[in-house]
Amino acid sequence: MMNYMQAGGIIMWLIAALSVAAAAVAAERLIFFHRAGADPEKLEKAFGKAISSGDVDGARAVVRSSNSSLNRLYFAAFTHWGIGREDMKLLMEQQVRREVFRWEKNLFMLEIIGKIAPLLGLLGTVLGMVEMFNSLYTGGQVSATAVTGGIWKALFTTVAGLTVAIPAIIAHAWLAARIDDQEETLQRAGDYLIREHFAWTRGGRKSAEEKE
C-alpha cells in the first residue's frame, strides 16, 4: 500500500485524506439518522390518545420520550398548544425547517468530495505523465518498458480518485433520499398537529359555549 502512496505522491495523500473525511461524514450522518428517526404512526397514535382524553401529563411524556426529530416537532407544538391556528401553522413550518437543517448538516461535504476526488486523481495522472515524459526527454532514450511503467504509475491517482468519489456520490444520494423522506414525514406530522390543534380549539370553544 505504501508503494502505491509513494508512487502517487502528495496527490495520493490528499485523496486518502478525502476518503477518511467522507467515511467520517457518512458514519456520523448514519448514526444521527438512526437516533433522530422515529415511528410516526406510533407517535401520532399515542399523542392523539393523550390529547383527546385531556391527559396533559401523558401527552408531555409522549413528546419527551425521545429526542427524535418527530418528537421535537411534537414537543414544539405541545408547548405552544394555546396559540392560534395561523401561529401554529407558522410554528410547524419553522420547526420542520430546523429539523431538516439538522438532517442536512455536513452532507454537502460528501457532494464536494465526490466532485473533487476524481479531479485530484486526474491532476495526479497528468502530473505523473508530465514527469514521465520529461524524464524520457532528458534521458535521451525511449523504451516501451519505461513508457508503460510510467503510465501505469501515473494512473494510480485516477484509480484512487474514482475509488473515493464513487462511494461518496452513492452515499450522498442515499442520504439525500432519506432526508427527503424525513422531510415528507415531518410535513405530514405538522399537518396532523395543526388538525389536532384546530379540533382541540373548537372543542374548547364548544365546551365554553355549553357552560354559558
Would you kindly provide a written description of the structure presented here, covering whatever features stand out?
It is a single chain. This protein is mainly α. It has helices at residues 2-8, 10-36, 40-52, 56-63, 69-79, 85-104, 107-139, 144-154, 156-211. The radius of gyration is 28 Å and the shape is rod-shaped.
Number of structural units classed as domains:
1
Largest sheet: none
Low-confidence stretches: 205-212
Gap between N and C termini:
84 Å
How many H/I helical runs? 9
> What is the CA-based Rg, rounded?
28 Å
What percent of the residues sit in helical stretches (DSSP H or I)? Answer: over 70%
Please summarize what this structure is.
The chain has 212 residues and is mostly helical.
